[in-house]
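User: I'm putting together notes for a lab meeting next week and I want to include a structural view of one of the chains we've been expressing. I don't have a solved structure, so I'd like a prediction I can at least talk through. The sequence is below, exactly as it appears in our construct file.
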Amino acid sequence: MDSANALVKDFSRHLREGRRRSQHTVRAYVTTAERFCSFLMEHLGGAVGKAELTALKQTDIRSYLAFRRGDGLSNNSAARELSAIRAFLKFVGGDDSQIPKIKGPKVTRGVPRPASPDDIVAIAGDIAESASSDWVGARDWAVLLLLYGSGLRISEALDLTGDALPLTDTLRVTGKRSKTRIVPLLPKVREAIEQYIDLCPHPMTLDQTIFRGKRGGPLSPNLIRRVVQQARGKLGISDKTTPHALRHSFATHLLAGGADLRSLQELLGHASLSSTQVYTAVDAAHLLDVYQNAHPRAG
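Assistant: Thanks for the context. Below is the predicted structure for the 299-residue chain, given as structure tokens.
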């Protein structure tokens, strides 16, 4: 069976099980594949299956991108959708498939701005104090300190299980594509996690996540994003100070302290050094801010 729906379902399974992509990547790629197939049904005037997808021309894909531009799609988002379409068409046609060659839109690579340590502590403190119970406050405080203190992605922090206990001065983390790495666990961060564990009403077992929701299930990353957003608004802190920005801040402050890029690459779990090199621009921007604000002859 090679209907569009069946192919998209198989593509989703391929990304999850065969390629071991993150939930976020799977969701984004599958949504794009579904949208693309829906467009093609109207564009081609009929059902879409493997035969139609493997026979697509440049003009067909350009028509889709033009359609999406009408929805206000940015260059960066269009580039991501084109990447997803290429992956989908390669999956449908196999390794020998002839995918129409299209030059992607020019994208601007933004420089992530680091949050200041004071802002991070202020947000974490406000969230802890505003929590509905002591253990929830301790949980949220520990999660945010872990993101900043160890440079974890939010999914990596929330995927930690009881197998990581008891805590030591390092932590084994499973990142993208199921790759593991060792990150430092600072004493203050370890203490925060241990305090949360002491207060948590749910038992810690080897196969369950350490950070739990109120009912005992895995803690949702959206909950952490939401409480950070609420604290930001109350404290008047930039809306760019997101949970992921804490990871950027970890990297920037380490680089400013003299860490080399290769070590930083390992700590962040980047597959390519080019992903880490963006932080040289971050650090330069940070130093320029310091210079302009503090130097008597700046400007």
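A couple of points you could mention at the meeting. Strands lie at 170-174, 180-184. The chain has two domains: 4-93, 117-244.

User: Perfect, that's what I needed.
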